[in-house]
Design goal:
This protein has two domains: 235 residues, Jelly Rolls; 103 residues, Sandwich (Immunoglobulin-like). It is mainly β. The chain is built from one helix and 25 strands.
Amino acid sequence: MTPFARTLALSAALLAAGGLLSVGLPAVSSAAAATTTLCNSQTAHVDGGTYTVENNEWGSSEPECISTDGSTGFTVANSSIANSTYGAPGGYPAIYRGCHWGACTPGSGLPIQVSKIRAGTVTTSWSTSQPGGSSDYDVAYDIWFNQTPTASGQPNGTELMIWLNHHGPVQPFGSEVARNVGIGGRGYNVWFGNQGWNTVSYTMTTGTTSVSNLDLQPLIADAVRRGYISPSWYLIDVEAGFELWHGGAGLATKSFSVKAVGGAAVASPSPASPSPAGPAPSPAGSSPDMSLQAISPDAPAPGTSTNVTVDFKNNGPAMAANLTLVTEILNSAGAVVGSQSQAGQNVAPQQTLNESYGWTAAAQAGTYTIEGLVQDSAGKTLERAQVGAVTVQ
């Protein structure tokens, strides 16, 4: 996941409509090496389930998809994302190993406590193809640390990014705090900011299309020395992908690998199987495990439009049928000043349904709360959570 994402894991609640929440999974082809197309927030297990590829279009509602053949590569098949390069990117199509928002890959060797990371403990290789043209993007690792060994939602430690390269006038979140720092035999500029969590970014002073056996220890140690990561925290996830501000079609990961030594085994879901032809309600009395995630939009001016996006994820084993998914915007007094409902939603296990709401910002400047609600077909609220905020300025 990328910056500007906020998550709240919710406790399990009985869903009379059955099941949990998720965005439609891509169709699974019977062909051994068939190409799978992933759009919105869809994911696919690759390399026998060792890695997960995710489209993760979290900050735009424009058409954008990636394709994968089941190997550790993927290609941005199309992208109409056109975000301002002075704000947040529209998406982060990526591949990862570890635990992303509670979705874990098996046998990753993660988590590993930061204090136990030595030279050679965690290494990674990544080969990319980077077209130019008018596209604006970065080519970056997104590496997450949590204060405890597991996280069901967004990690509560630090996000460490490593920019291999970028195209166009884009830059990391926060401010540049150091230039031309030699780390692990490479030169980096260092950026830091806090958006509810620490984000530290290391941008290579000489861009590249690939790295081989990149040792993460020197970069992690540098972030610890700067006070951005605690030695008691845990490395839980290593991702690699492309933050897209504008376009990006043709960007590709040709190969990717992460090797971790000495970490703990992480419980992970088995690879997803094809969804049934029709929604099957969950057994009576079952307790679904729901999580909602809000994507903080760019700060709008009063009266202008901004996209407020909430992801509704079904963490459980059964289909959720005929649900209404609601996004609400509340002012400081708790009054609803904007809302959008999507009725009749059927969501499969271990999937995430991405709902984007084009909210016309209130006339009064200030911070407004984003809430997500899950209702049954009768309008009864099954889940409600404050999942983010938007600032009108």
